[in-house]
Structures
1.
Amino acid sequence: MASGKAVIRARPWVAASFLLPALLLLGALVVYPIGYTVWRSLFDASGDGFVGLSNFADIFTEDDTRTALRNNVIWIVVAPTICTVLGLIFAVMTERIRWATAFKLIVFMPMAISMLAAGIIFRLVYEQDPDRGVANAVATTVHDTFSGSSTWPDAEPRPDGALQAQEDGSYLLAEPVTAGEPVLLPLVGIPQPELEGADPAEVAAGGGQEVTGTVWRDFTPGGEGTENTVDPGEEGLAGITVEAVRDGDVVASATTGDDGTFTLPAEADGAQLRLAADSFTAPYNGVEWLGPSLITPAIIASYVWMWAGFAMVLIAAGLAAVPRETLEAARVDGANEWQIFRRVTVPLLAPVLAVVMVTLMINVMKIFDLVLVIPPQSSQADANVLALELYQESFISGGNPGLGSAIAVLLLLLAVPVMLNNIRRLRRENQR
């Protein structure tokens, strides 16, 4: 019976007839688009003027394309590395826990979500408002647990009142106080919702050697009240820190009660009163995840959430093929678990880790959906990547298809070395 090679040599037209449909399809869908893109990258926006390599020079000189190129480098270095490391950790963990199947399911589940849907999800997760954004809800909860929040962030003195705003956010009563004479410290500007459950304000009792006073909202709905007077129905401001200051030093302090009254010891006689700034500072509103400085790390985090499960599954498959005798021999020789992981497991998994890294590097080179959906318009330019810049230059009105084609060629050139290295590595493995 003739061998396959002999048949091909004797009847080359047979092989050609089988290969022709695939070659035509390959040429129409791959070769022609690549060739046309390279040709188009040598022309201007209209396609009529030949500009040579000018479009490629613009990639490294224009601000938008330079930002996109820089962000792509960050993506290529950071995202695959984090995904691979987390995948390795998760894969090792699944061999040591009882509920490994459920854990794998949970970690891999985001892979079933499209990039567009994941972008919408994380756009909501990163919302600045803690009542809507999960990330800032967690951040504000942790912050307020350890630092607390201001008592009355919207309160302020009357513009013509005795209390004067200071640069540090505190309010100072310029005139020294006298023991036995109740001090009135009115504030305004507090929305009614913040006063829900507040007690009515009371005038502090006078007499004695102590300094007493009242801090309250000096406003009566309907405008029937009198300024600088504690009128019926006006609310006391609880929890405000009142400090007695003499020569720049705090000699005494007190906190207002539910009815807004406070009492300072005799040391406060003759001092100035100051309402501490920490009672009026704006509440912590979380991290600006979608701001220019954090937008790229925030999008990378969403990508890691999706693709760490992919890395885990591949690495877990490689880990299952690791000879158990080798691991047991290392334990018999006295190696601890960390030494086994670092000197035995990781080297044996090196081919699998390389596959995961290369696959993810190629994947992030063309990242597009997340960068399009997650950033608001104000941060879109700071999160820009080459694939998104290619789309905007090629298809958005006012763009430059020549520059977009040049970006596409650059992406191809960046991917070719990675693919060639992967092919070379696969060939070496097949020869073993």
2.
Amino acid sequence: MKFILFILIGLGCFSNGLSAQDFQWLEDKKVEFKQDTAHLEQEVRDMLDKDYSTLGMIEASYYLEQGYDKLLNKYYKVLLNILNEENKILLRTSQRNWINLRDSDKKLISGMKDQTYEAMGGGTVWGVIAASERADITRRRVFELYNFIQFSSLS
């Protein structure tokens, strides 16, 4: 499937008049994105290697969430810089809507953690699960923005 997608992207790039320089920029962004995300994920694995306690796992998830938040801002700006004015407005609206959804989802996760904690009679694992889920919300958005960068570069 990845091979077919790569071919379609490649054909799209050349058929839409993407210059070699533009194609190289896109490839450079792909490498940069992979490095950014791999570096962050490795830092979290290193944290967990040092402290695999409940508190260590929660702190690692918090660190992951903060790291992905920085990447979110980075790739949001990259996308913003390649969009026309109309699509910049749409991106800003989309991002504001996503922030509202993110905040709502975080409240839901906290509420579900509390409910499950009470129903199960306690347990520290629920804090770990909730922290991980909160980090994953931001992680998914970073990947969405990166995919938008790839898509918008084809137009």
3.
Amino acid sequence: MLIKTHAVVLHSFKYGETQLITDLLTEELGRLSFINNIPRSARGKVKKQFFQPLTLLEIEFDYRSKNRLQRIRDVRMAYPFSTIPFDAAKLSLSLFMAEFLSYATRDEQKNLALYKYVETSIRWLDSARRQFANFHLVFMIRLSRFLGFYPNLDNDQRGCFFDLRNGCFTTVLPLHPDFLTAEETSKISLLMRMTPDTMHLFAMSRHERNRCAEIVLFFYRLHIPNFPELKSFEVLKELFG
């Protein structure tokens, strides 16, 4: 079956001397993996440079449901970046987001709303001219809505606790260790009310931002099986001092 779809590059690596394996989040079929020959000349359609993390593509391929690895027939950039590859902070954010999405969407089937959210967020980051230091925090917490475990904001009030296992605010101390203190709960409550267009209005120190990121990543580990520690997070922690 011939499929034409938009896609986001999450991860790619060289396989042998002549092939490239790539993980994509596609608009039409969710997560798919592809294997393609690396062209030896500039005339080849499937160029290696198309498969940098978070690149937005339009691809065409003959989908075979029994194959673990598909083959791309044609590809082009759907949205050439204007700033992400040339801005060190945005590039670090993009590498972190790509690794994060690789695990957060690992088993996703077609989910049009999720795909549109991811693509729109990437475009926003590329076009951002104002402060975007909180972008990854807003992106991660809002993505959980499309994955089915966005926190329940009922009972969110001053002095309450946030139950990470059950994803809810509570005035009663949970009987397990996976909850936030009232002080940290207030920070997460604030984060849940940020949007990309308002997040520059909320000042955070680097320590506060990194702690929020640690909390959100732990929240994902509680709700997605085998969600690991992210290697790119160590680099990201040094940004936005």
4.
Amino acid sequence: MIDRIDHFVITVQSLEKTCAFYERVLGFKRIDSAGPTAMTFGKQKINVHEVGRTFDPKALAPTSGAADFCLITRMPVEEMRAHLESCGVPIELGPIERDGAEGKMISLYFRDPDSNLVEVSRYLDLN
């Protein structure tokens, strides 16, 4: 019935700070339109709502720092780790093996400027 995720929304304290982080650290592209600002990557996007400036309809209680999500990379995990460290992003956990939607993967965990937990993973079958 469902094929994939198109987008999800995160609520943040600072639109500028958050978008700059994702552009610099993960190579996302910022899109500003009449609706919410979005950050695109691959065939997906994250819509970004600023606290107090959300768009309807929205979650019942949009909260900054409540997101926890996993992104998939084709980059070797050690290269991703080195890249994150070169960007000054502390690794909270990893590399560690996890179970993803399509099998075993190796993950790194870190936090964005709002303390959302971001997991970046690479499937083992790509190694």
